Amino acid sequence: MSRSVLVTGGNRGIGLAIARAFAEAGDKVAITYRSGEPPAGFLAVKCDITDTEQVEQAYKEIEEKHGPVEVLVANAGITRDQLLMRMSEEDFSAVLDTNLTGTFRVVKRANRAMLRARKGRIVLISSVVGLMGAAGQANYAASKAALVGFSRSLARELGSRNITVNVVAPGFVDTDMTRVLSDEQRESIVKQVPLARYAQPEEVAASVRFLASEEAAYITGAVIPVDGGLGMGH
């Protein structure tokens, strides 16, 4: 059955791989993007998730064209890395407002229709950094760690309505964001990973699609690491 799927930040990297995975399975996929030209093949809706009104308008357009969102993947996020002593309050707040409060906005809006339908799948994209921490990423790590508590609270709140809420925590993934690192930086990162390589975006997407499937109907409140063993024990 073709479902209405929304992937926020689905125009590149991990988000695009997730959108493609659902589309290949026959779902109707909408993506949000904030800037640039969106990829073809999806219902692309320009939306800044830090703006509640833009989120509302995006959902109205998606509902009109694809029906109520049945699967939500909250992937949109930003980084503003800096050592704490040099990190501005604005840099800290901006990352929290996008990665955490932005997720709250899109989940809350999707929740309305899911409650009426008494079913739904919500997957939040966190990060191994949210579990392990990383120097220079206190704002990013705080926002991604917070998604775990947020999702588990919602899993308890919504479980009786057949709505599951889970987290996928990727490690280092081979995307445009990581390709800008120097060879020395990339080599240093790989040395920390038991599987000794970066993840491919499609490997993250496969876990997301599984959590949204019928096979995962009894999984909720889980944190699934896709990190090559980097964060084991966290």
UniProtKB/TrEMBL annotation:
<comment type="pathway">
    <text>Lipid metabolism; fatty acid biosynthesis.</text>
</comment>
<dbReference type="InterPro" id="IPR036291">
    <property type="entry name" value="NAD(P)-bd_dom_sf"/>
</dbReference>
<keyword id="KW-0444">Lipid biosynthesis</keyword>
<dbReference type="InterPro" id="IPR011284">
    <property type="entry name" value="3oxo_ACP_reduc"/>
</dbReference>
<dbReference type="GO" id="GO:0004316">
    <property type="term" value="F:3-oxoacyl-[acyl-carrier-protein] reductase (NADPH) activity"/>
</dbReference>
<comment type="subunit">
    <text>Homotetramer.</text>
</comment>
<keyword id="KW-0276">Fatty acid metabolism</keyword>
<keyword id="KW-0560">Oxidoreductase</keyword>
<keyword id="KW-0275">Fatty acid biosynthesis</keyword>
<protein>
    <recommendedName>
        <fullName>3-oxoacyl-[acyl-carrier-protein] reductase</fullName>
        <ecNumber>1.1.1.100</ecNumber>
    </recommendedName>
</protein>
<feature type="domain" description="Ketoreductase">
    <location>
        <begin position="3"/>
        <end position="176"/>
    </location>
</feature>
<comment type="similarity">
    <text>Belongs to the short-chain dehydrogenases/reductases (SDR) family.</text>
</comment>
<dbReference type="InterPro" id="IPR002347">
    <property type="entry name" value="SDR_fam"/>
</dbReference>
<dbReference type="InterPro" id="IPR020904">
    <property type="entry name" value="Sc_DH/Rdtase_CS"/>
</dbReference>
<dbReference type="Pfam" id="PF13561">
    <property type="entry name" value="adh_short_C2"/>
</dbReference>
<keyword id="KW-0521">NADP</keyword>
<comment type="function">
    <text>Catalyzes the NADPH-dependent reduction of beta-ketoacyl-ACP substrates to beta-hydroxyacyl-ACP products, the first reductive step in the elongation cycle of fatty acid biosynthesis.</text>
</comment>
<keyword id="KW-0443">Lipid metabolism</keyword>
<dbReference type="InterPro" id="IPR057326">
    <property type="entry name" value="KR_dom"/>
</dbReference>
